[in-house]
Amino acid sequence: MRVLVVEDYTLIREPLVQALREHGFAVDAAANGRDGGELIAVNDYDVIVLDWMLPEVSGLALLKDLRRRNCQSAVLLLTARDEITDRVTGLEAGADDYLVKPFAVAELLARVKSLVRRRYQSPDPVIRVGELEVDTTARRVQVDGAEVSLTAREFALLEYLASRKGAIVSRQEIEEHVYDFRSEATSNVVDVYIGYVRRKIERDGQPRLIHTHRGQGYSLRVEP
Amino acid sequence: MLGTGGGALLVLAICGWLLDRMLARSLQVDFDARLLDEARTIATLIEFEEGEVHSAMADHEFPQFQPSPRSAAWQIWRTADNRLLGSSAGSAPSMPQPTVASTTPAFGDQAFDDGRPGRRVWFTLVPVIEPPDPEDDEPPETVEAGEPPEVTLVLARDTLDLQAIQAKVRRMLGLVFAVMTALILATLLVVTRRTLASLRELASTLNRIDSRELPTLEIAGGTTEVQTVVDRLNGLIGRLKLAMQKEREFTANVAHELRTPLAGMRSQIEVALLSPRDPAAYVETLRRCAEANAQTEAIVTELLRLARIDAGLEVARCEEFRLDKLLEDIAREFSPIARTAGRTVAWQVDAPLNIVSDEGKVRVIVLNLLSNAVEYSQGPGPVEVSAACENGVARLVVANPCKPFANGDLDRIFNRLWRGDEARGATGVHAGLGLAICRELAHSMRATLTASCPRPGRFEIRLELPEKK
User: Fold this and answer.
1) Which residues, in sequence order, are bridge partners of residue B386?
2) What ipTM was estimated for this complex?
3) pLDDT at residue B422 above 50?
4) Beta-carbon separation of B267 and A83 below 8 A
5) CA distance B296 to chain A (A)
């Protein structure tokens, strides 16, 4: 899943980016509202972690602007303002969640994951596709009750496909939601990683889980 | 209200007393006038005949001089030797001999033998000479008549009627006073009860006020006095609301400024603990935490300094020093910092600049202004510092290139915890307290600190200090 962190204070922005990446998210970061707005304009982020008070363009102004542009990304607003009126203002401006500084990083990670689930309408953190179980909270994958070991990138790919189970997902969408600007995404990196994941979750004699749709992309589902 | 009622009663009593005195005086003047008329009538009956003064009063048998419980009295005295020449029956012993003789009537109090109070009038006159009776056949005996002697006529009457009228008037005045007193007391009672009811309602309303919200007081049917108190209280409540709102904003801003580095520190620590790291990562985390800690400490130090200034504990010293020398020291200290930030500082300082102020505080202000100028410079051009004396004032100006200020931002620049949007780039580093502290320090030294944009793209802060005389 791809997350954007817009926070001007380096001592918060950098550890957040690190924690999110270590939890399998593809993360981009911006230090002011203007840069954040430019990133949002060209990428489809699953979650935007947005500080309220930012230089150049305030977080609240940026939030209102992206909602006006019908941006569907979930927004987690970060602020040191904890008055009820502030929360109401933030939520009414279009934020999906609100976190007051100082916050626990674990809580922020949980909220980001919750927003991701909400975005893909899967309230259960464990996504099941046939014998495949993807636990997005514990970051564990099981096939037919057996644990499967995946790298962070493989898990991110499988998590994205699982969150959109049944739907055809294009390579571009996968690139956008699984890779950030730091990643060295080559032209066939998606195909390569699809191959890796297939080998780990599909068993001989069992129905295929990841299906290739020529010219369209991939889907995760059990063939009837 | 009680004072007003008491005052009204006092005025009423004084007016009643004055009215009584005026009426008594008027009645007495009227009485005296009638007594004088009577005396003048009697005077016409005093004759000089056959060398003797005698009165024809007995001939006329005036009823008022006949012996009775209310009889009046008259006396005729020869002025020359104060010899009593005649009097009404029984009046002579009790009437004092007039001591001053004059043709002008004199009046005085008279006490009758039976205890009746009265008034008397006396004046001198020369009796008329009785001409011979032309019908008298007998020729008058030749008597050596001579000139009639000057006599003093005294006439006295009791004043029982006068006193009866006065007593009646006093009774009426007393009645009026009693009625008015009753009316005033009744009015006072009604007004007092109404006022007390309003005050009770006001006290009850005040008692119900929650410290978290201060509503405007509204007392129905209160008197003018109570309404005045309510208006004053509402004014006070308005000022308290404003102060509380400012305090809430200040507290929220302080919390915001402190939370930011605290959140940074917490994030650093928690992320470091998410999974095992190599030693270098932990060292980096500690370094970042120390950075956040230093920022927190700086904010707290500035807040404490502001609190000390507010409490009047930052007393400015008054010492003579050379501002140009101080600026030289600061230039040496600050130049490396400016260079690190990629800015140059251009100095233009007159010498010598002898001033009387607090050198330590001036140093704090100048360093703060320079730090801000370097931090917030936007666009090309150096930070400029100039200092000169003019008309007994040492003027220090720190200027830097800047972006245009938003409307009203220049006015808010000295507000506590206020930061322009551009300043948000320095979150955790600046809390918007520096300029507020500088201005307070300047005020404590009787100096002035003002900000202006003399032309687009140039921001100036001006410190004006008194020059040594």
Assistant:
1) B348, B397
2) 0.76
3) no
4) no
5) 13
